[in-house]
Design a protein that fits this description.
193 residues, mainly alpha, Lysozyme
Length: 193
Amino acid sequence: MAFIPKGFLVDGSVEDQTREIAALLAHFDHGTSGLLYKEQSDPPDTYCLPSKDFPCYPGKSYHGRGPLQLCWNYNYKMCGEGIGDDSLLSRPEKLSQDPVIAFKSALWFWCTRQWNKPSCHSVMTGNWTPLSSDIEANRLPGFGLTINIINGIECNIESAEANSRVEKYRKFCELLAVNPGENIDCRYQKPFG
């Protein structure tokens, strides 16, 4: 209910909404190995980019946690503000300890514009129009763009990770009896800069 004001499961046609659920489930499935893992295993670093606005707390790691594997201190800070929990920056482990906060973080990321990127929600519901620079970069509306928004390093290359996301999306579209639509991979999309 907290995300209805942002248009979640309200915007777009019934077909758009069904595709959006398939997309979200595909990313959840991919990021958590079928909702098996709550956080990234063996993170290579603490994902901390210190700044006065997004300070890193001693001994804390801002690695991927939750259904969409939220990472980096700045995302934890903005997410905490967005879901009404200002303690996420100082207690990032809450994302793997509290399932309500974990799923709120995922929906926050999904429904919120990320820096120079549109929200995944606006892309999947037809509420985003690409700029000429997006068209030149082959960033067009569809599931493939959500991969670019979530993890652009999987795009503009042949990527097993991106291919896995696409297969999961196709599976959920089939289960939900909805056409996957166009632009479902990001193989030829330039990542956002």
